[in-house]
């Protein structure tokens, strides 16, 4: 294919992902005659703009439904999520009581906590429950309620009532998008209300969000950010957004994923 500009190339990537399905970095690099790094930057931009969903090794078209399922999100920004989860797990100390949100990045954290000793984990997410259900050194509490199939998380008055009986050393939140001005974005008002209630019950709050989620506004319900929270993201985060978050008092931690270079 003759060389084309970056905008035209990105438009073509969206078209290919929409018409043929999953597009890998290697295939796109060969097709357009550019480096894998160039394609990764294209995919990061398209994901940030909400035009594609990242997967492990490539990208796929966004589903017709505006909210992707947990299964669809699991492969997005895989290496970044793993690095974020490892950093978060290293913060946990023996004897602590944790609250884990639903979501794929928090699910990755739950996997990292399988080797933890003498901790209590309460969670609203099925992924975390599945990861920790067979670990004897982790005491698990399920905050039940109404299950949202897309997010595989519990919400609603029963979940909120359970929260009123508990406090936590650390809370780890997931998100569909982060805005310095607006806060944490979710598809459902019940989710944003629940996140706000969860934060009130924890001494330390961490928002786990890979770079493509920063600056995203996919939905219209929000949980305000508080200046004493910590956002954990990866090293591809937009510096302007990072600065915007820090200017509001948040601590921003950027981890470096172990990226594979075989493509």
Automatic annotation (TrEMBL):
Alphabetical UniProt keywords: DNA-binding, Transcription, Transcription regulation
Keyword Cell inner membrane included in the entry's annotation: no
Name of the protein in its database record: DeoR/GlpR family DNA-binding transcription regulator
Example GO molecular function: DNA binding
InterPro entries: Carb_Metab_HTH_regulators, DeoR-like_C, DeoR_HTH, NagB/RpiA_transferase-like, WH_DNA-bd_sf
Domain HTH deoR-type stretches: 6-61
Residue ranges of the TM segments: none
Top-level taxonomic group: Bacteria
Keyword Transmembrane helix included in the entry's annotation: no
